[in-house]
Amino acid sequence: MKSQYVIIVGCGILGSALANTLSALGHSIVIIDHSEDSFDELGNEFSGFKINGDANEFFVLSQAKVDKADVVLAVTDDDNLNIMLAQICQKVYNIPNVIARVNQPKSAELFNKLGIKTICPATLALDNLVRILDQTQDHEGAK
Question: Domain boundaries in the chain?
C-alpha cells in the first residue's frame, strides 16, 4: 500500500487507534484534538504529528496542511463537527478521500446522499451482532 498523508480529527478511542495503526503501517499522520490529554492514548508506534487545537478553525486546518492531505478522517464524537469538516475538506480543499464518523444511523443515510462517506459505529455493531446471532443459530441448528 502506498504511503499516504492522513489527517485524523479526534484523538479518542477510535482516533488514537487509527493514528497508531496507520502510523505503524508507514503513513504520514497528523492528528488534531482540542484536548491535549487525549494524545496520551497514542502509543509508541505513533510517529506522526499532534496538533492541539479546534479543527473548526481554518488556522488549525492550515497548520495541519490540509490542502496536502490524501485522506481526512473526522472521527470526533460530535456528528455536526465531523460532517462540517467533511464538507469543508471535500468542497474547499478538494481532498479526494474524506470519511466522517456519525453516531446516528439516520444521519449517515442523509450524509451519504450528500456524497459524504460515513462510518456509523452503531450500524457496524448492529450488523455484526445480527451476523453473529445468525451464525449461532446456524451452528445450533446443525446439532
Answer: 5-141
Architecture of domain 5-141: 3-Layer(aba) Sandwich (3.40)
pLDDT tens for residues 104-123? 888 887 888 878 899 988 88
User: How far apart (Å, rounded) are the C-alpha atoms in residues 2 and 139?
Assistant: 41
Q: Is the dihedral of CA 42, 50, 48, 66 positive or negative?
A: positive
Q: How confident is the model at residue 19 (pLDDT cuts 50, 70, 90)?
A: very high
Residue 115 is given by DSSP the state T
- Let me know: does 33 contact 10? Beta carbons within 8 Å: yes
Contact 55, 85 (CB under 8 A): yes
DSSP 24-48: HTT-EEEEEES-GGGGGG--TT--S
Considering only CA atoms, which of 62, 91, 88 is closest in space to residue 74? 88
Q: Report yes or no on whether pTM surpasses 0.85.
A: yes
